[in-house]
Amino acid sequence: MRNNIITASVILFLLSGIIFYKALQIPQISRGSAAPPVAPEREESSPESQPVLKQNATEEESKKALVKELQSTITRLEGELAVSVKKPHADSGNETKRKEPRILAVLGSGTFKSGQVVISEELTNAVQDIVRDIKASPHSRISIEGHTDSTPTRTRPGSPYQDNMDLSFLRAKAIARMLIEQGVLSERISVIGYGDTRPIATNETEDGRAQNRRVEVKLISEDREI
Questions:
Q1: Chunked mean pLDDT (size 10), the chain, 226 residues
Q2: Which of 213, 23, 20 is nearest to 109 (CA)?
Q3: Bridge-partner residues for 147, per DSSP?
Q4: Distance CA 34, CA 47 (A)
Q5: What is the pTM assigned to this prediction?
């Protein structure tokens, strides 16, 4: 595509130069205040001069027609070049859209207690449900992202976690361990903890904080970077 654009630009440049050159060869009519040209006396004209005048007029008309044709060609090429420049953007946008990761599950809404990593029966059943989707795409990778609410871990007496980043990572790691126990290969799995940096609800209410305490499991195509 870049070669096509460069070629079209060179053609436009050459055509512009030709137009400029041809325009210089066309006699220009002065519009100043000079005295009007004196008509040649009838007796000085000869039959031999008539074909020459007619030939000169024909050449000027041909030059003007050529300039007009070249200008039309430039306008057409400029339009084609504009379309060529815009088209790759649309294609790249579609390609990016096709490679977006697919969210298999958001394990939250009360699944995790505040400041804890506890595997409940409800959480176990949810993980078993997504194993089928994971095994149906054997060439994809799995990204497991842990999240917390905004309550600092240091405010919880006896908390074994350093901070919310540590807590979110361990939540994601617990889900990864469950997937491995269900037969998912460990090399397909990546684990990351975001702490309380990516809330999906307000942390001002108990319901909002419960939604923020979650683990998201995403399926990523083989040719996409995590």
A1: 64 67 54 50 54 67 74 71 52 54 83 74 84 90 94 74 90 93 94 95 93 93 63
A2: 213
A3: 214
A4: 30
A5: 0.54
